[in-house]
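Thread: "does anyone have the structure for this chain?"

Original post by V.I.:
We have the sequence but no experimental structure in hand. Need at least a predicted one for the grant figures.
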Amino acid sequence: MSDYRESPPITCPHDTAHTIDPSQTIIYRTIGTNQTVVVDPFDGWYQSTSDTINIAAGNAGDVTNYDIWWPSNIVLWSLMLYFDPNAAGDSFSIIASPNTTIGLTLSDLDIGATTAVVSPTVFTHAIQGLDIAVSNNQNQNQNPAYQELGRITALNPATNTISFEYALTQPFPANCLIMLNHHNVRQFKIDNNLINTNGITFGNRLLIGKTIPSGTIIRIKYTNQSTTAKTLTYKIEYSIVP
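Reply from O.Q.:
Generated one for you, tokens below.
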């Protein structure tokens, strides 16, 4: 039999009445506690890259969007973020394929509304809990308008109705775009612990191990809660795959 242990066994694990002579035990592989072995199950080419995002000075609450994409399919392994010393109180989100159009509004939307009648295609792509937005950009006779509606709180395909988190602050006519925003990281607040511990690494659950098609945008959305300029540095590990 074979097993991994900190020391050779002296009794049989299946029957403790049977003893084992340690001198007859052969150590055929050793794993150190300070050793990490990476096994890549994908056919592909490993790469790593980094960059620094400049967060401009402005008004408190200003948002900086930074888009990352690849001209090939990739498998994402890890994303590391390193924060400015003055970043405490700011927040960020990471969004895959931001503002993907999934349907249209079928009636006018008034200020204060938290429900909308939408086209059936919305229910093909949306599930409760995902973030959506509305935009009238396709309506040439309207001034461009856009509003994030937060998370979907209810869906009723029988009536083509969806409910959402944030009430409308402006009206929208019928035939406006309903857009999906898949947040892998949602409004993550930066505190001094993150700054002092040299940033944060996202892995395992952040798209990790999934193939991301070429051209897919990964957006880092940074909200600056002060009026001073800052920087945000990222490092990404991934494999290019067919």
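V.I.: this helps a lot. The chain is about 5% helix and 40% strand.
O.Q.: and The mean pLDDT is 87.
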